[in-house]
């Protein structure tokens, strides 16, 4: 029963990103089943999943072709590894299929189990690359404040969330520059026009490279749009300038597409959406529709050439690198995505999202509504004109997240920024329904905050 699950859970289960006091007080929320774009709590409450799980079940929860591919693979070859010159058909087919979708200059894939491991792997490849190029002193890494790149030591060191760095000693040699967060611009930047702000934010990369010495800088890591950091959609001026700076100083560009890879912008990869030429694309989550774990790294031709020219073995890998069951799930996911969901985002749903999501800016609590492809954010403010926030450092966001559940919608809160990343399978009416529920959640939040 629900109560038995909650009791056992409180006693035995260490939850990621959870405060145990909340579990002790309220019990865990037990999600017992799912269908299409909806999840169901064990108490029967139905929720429209506006977050696609953790940005991964992009095709929703009911995909029998993926289930069948998993079952068939378990019969055919449930496990083999890809170490010591071995492969198996699904890993090879998937590597080829992913390269066929990626920008033309990325033609090799390294498989991991997760996005965190994929970012760890890139760090090791970056060092090997500069070693092979005879510049082993190029070790400094630049990433961005408030970024999320995973929870391993390397992933969390790359990430720029202060509260995560408090829990351990981050790896040395990783530096952070400001995020292109125009709504949050402060001081002299607060009055900047959006495109000027985008250039300012991009130029922080050049400043950091010059401060560290260009010959010491190995790579720049960034998400195309920061996801967990608050759906920070960069101004249009941002990415072209970043690309220019990376080229000018020969700094490797690592685009972490764990959230945006496999369609969320309406292109297979956000690097295509922003016309980037990355040296690495990091992926995970949506590659298997979240049904089984799989992550990986797409590697550019110039980098793989250097990596493979190194005289030592590529001494790096995981027992489950290219797990056959995960690869089978991914191949089925890619087949389904190729049949229309991604082009539907490009041709129809991004506009539908703009039509319904952006008017949420009219709500008295919303300082800004923004969206791109199938992600959106709302900035909760106490005063629209001055963008003044509510007291309590994220309290309003937490209230709104809870009220959203009451309204039958899963939204996520990052501080006082509400985030949405719905499944690609929604139709126009469901997107309208989603935004109506969001509006209702805002009304409930307003009432609660006024109490
Ligand atoms: N990179 C980004 C941009 C992410 O959003 C995440 C997870 O949310 C990760 C990396 C880490 O991926 P994983 O949780 O699969 O390790």
CATH topology of the largest domain: Aspartate Aminotransferase, domain 2
Bound molecules: pyridoxal-5'-phosphate
Measured between the Cα atoms of the first and last residue, the distance is 35 Å
Number of domains: 2
Share in helix: 40-55%
Cofactor: pyridoxal 5'-phosphate
Pfam families: Aminotran_3
Protein name: Aspartate aminotransferase family protein
Family: Belongs to the class-III pyridoxal-phosphate-dependent aminotransferase family.
How would you characterize this protein structure?
By secondary structure, the chain is α/β, with parallel strands linked by helices. It has 2 domains: 2-62 and 341-450, Aspartate Aminotransferase, domain 1 (Alpha-Beta Complex), CATH 3.90.1150.10; 64-338, Type I PLP-dependent aspartate aminotransferase-like (Major domain) (Aspartate Aminotransferase, domain 2, 3-Layer(aba) Sandwich). Helices cover 41% and strands 15% of the residues. The chain contains 16 helices and 14 strands. The chain has helices at 2-12, 20-26, 52-55, 64-76, 89-101, 115-132, 153-158, 162-165, 194-212, 238-249, 270-273, 301-309, 324-338, 341-357, 395-406, 428-450, and strands at 31-35, 38-41, 46-48, 106-112, 140-144, 174-177, 217-222, 252-256, 280-283, 295-300, 366-372, 375-380, 412-414, 417-420. The strands form 3 sheets. It has a 7-stranded mixed beta sheet with strand order 4-10-9-8-7-5-6, sandwiched between helices. The protein has a 4-stranded antiparallel beta sheet with strand order 11-12-14-13, with helices on one face. A hairpin with a 2-residue loop joins strand 13 (412-414) and strand 14 (417-420). Helix 14 packs parallel to helix 16. It is globular, with a radius of gyration of 22 Å. The protein starts with a helix and ends with a helix. The relative contact order is 0.14. The mean pLDDT is 97. Pyridoxal-5'-phosphate binds next to helix 6.
């Amino acid at each position: 029963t629900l109560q038995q699950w909650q009791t056992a859970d409180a006693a035995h289960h260490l939850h990621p990103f959870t405060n145990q006091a909340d579990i002790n007080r309220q019990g865990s929320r037990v999600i017992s089943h799912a269908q299409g774009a909806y999840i169901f709590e064990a108490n029967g409450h139905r929720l429209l999943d506006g977050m696609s799980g953790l940005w991964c079940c992009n095709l929703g929860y009911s995909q029998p072709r993926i289930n069948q591919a998993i079952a068939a693979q378990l019969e055919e070859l449930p496990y083999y590894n890809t170490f010591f010159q071995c492969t198996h058909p699904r890993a090879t087919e998937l590597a080829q299929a992913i390269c066929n979708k990626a920008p033309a200059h990325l033609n090799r894939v390294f498989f991991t189990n997760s996005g965190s491991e994929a970012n760890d792997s890139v760090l090791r490849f970056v060092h090997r690359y500069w070693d092979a190029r005879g510049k082993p002193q190029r070790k400094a890494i630049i990433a961005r404040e408030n970024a999320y790149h995973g929870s391993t030591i390397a992933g969390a060191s790359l990430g720029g969330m202060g509260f995560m760095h408090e829990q351990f000693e981050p790896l040395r040699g990783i530096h952070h520059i400001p995020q292109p967060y125009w709504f949050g611009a402060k001081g002299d930047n607060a009055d900047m026009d959006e495109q000027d702000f985008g250039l300012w934010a991009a130029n922080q990369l050049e400043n950091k490279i010059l401060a560290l010495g260009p010959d010491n800088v190995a790579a720049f890591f960034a998400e195309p749009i920061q996801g967990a950091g608050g759906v920070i959609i960069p101004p249009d001026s941002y990415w072209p300038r970043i690309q220019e700076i990376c080229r000018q100083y020969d700094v490797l560009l690592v685009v972490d597409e764990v959230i945006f890879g496999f369609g969320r912008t309406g292109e297979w990869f956000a690097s295509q959406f922003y016309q980037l030429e990355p040296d690495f694309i990091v992926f995970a989550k949506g590659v298997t529709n979240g049904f089984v774990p799989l992550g990986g790294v797409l590697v550019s031709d110039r980098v793989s050439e250097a990596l493979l020219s190194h005289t030592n073995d590529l001494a790096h890998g995981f027992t489950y690198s290219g797990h056959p069951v995960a690869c089978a799930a991914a191949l089925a996911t890619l087949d389904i995505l190729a049949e229309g969901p991604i082009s539907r985002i490009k041709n129809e749903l991004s506009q539908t999202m703009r039509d319904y999501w952006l008017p949420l800016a009219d709500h008295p609590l919303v300082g800004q509504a923004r969206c791109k492809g199938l992600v959106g954010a709302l900035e909760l403010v106490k005063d629209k004109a001055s963008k003044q926030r509510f007291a309590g450092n994220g309290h309003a966001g937490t209230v709104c997240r809870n009220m959203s559940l009451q309204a039958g919608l899963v939204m996520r809160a990052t501080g006082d920024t509400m985030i949405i990343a719905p499944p690609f399978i929604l139709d126009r009416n469901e997107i309208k329904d989603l935004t109506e529920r969001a509006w209702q959640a805002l009304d409930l939040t307003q009432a609660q905050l006024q109490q």
